[in-house]
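# nightly structure sweep
# worker-07 picked up a monomer target from the shared queue
# config: single-sequence mode, recycle default, output format = structure tokens
# input follows
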Amino acid sequence: MALQLAPEFGYVVFTLVATFVTYTYLGVNVGKARKKYDVKYPTMYSDKDKVFNCYQRAHQNMLEQLPLFLVFLMVAGVQFPIPSAIAGLIWNAGRIVYAHGYYTGDPAKRNQGAFAYFGLFALVGMSIYGAVRQLNWV
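# output follows
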């Protein structure tokens, strides 16, 4: 049995590239914050500066969510490439807005990026629906 991907799966690949760019952008911002707030490696969090910790947490939170996001993007993308790519871009945009809200030093402002969950939950839903279709349950 061969796996055949639609040409539109290329959009999913572009979304993977966008995810790499988002991840790198947040990582570079942590590096800049390390210099600005004088937090040396290997120290993960500052006991002196709350704003640095907000930069670090924004990046760390993306790392925490990234594995499942990637799995659902790929699984959903096999059967629903264009909607999956769009959902993935929504997730990426939400991660950036989340980070910039966090960067203010007021952790509550990170919730401005909570719309990222619409993208993630859409991918989960498409993955479940794709599994149901694959099993011929519908």
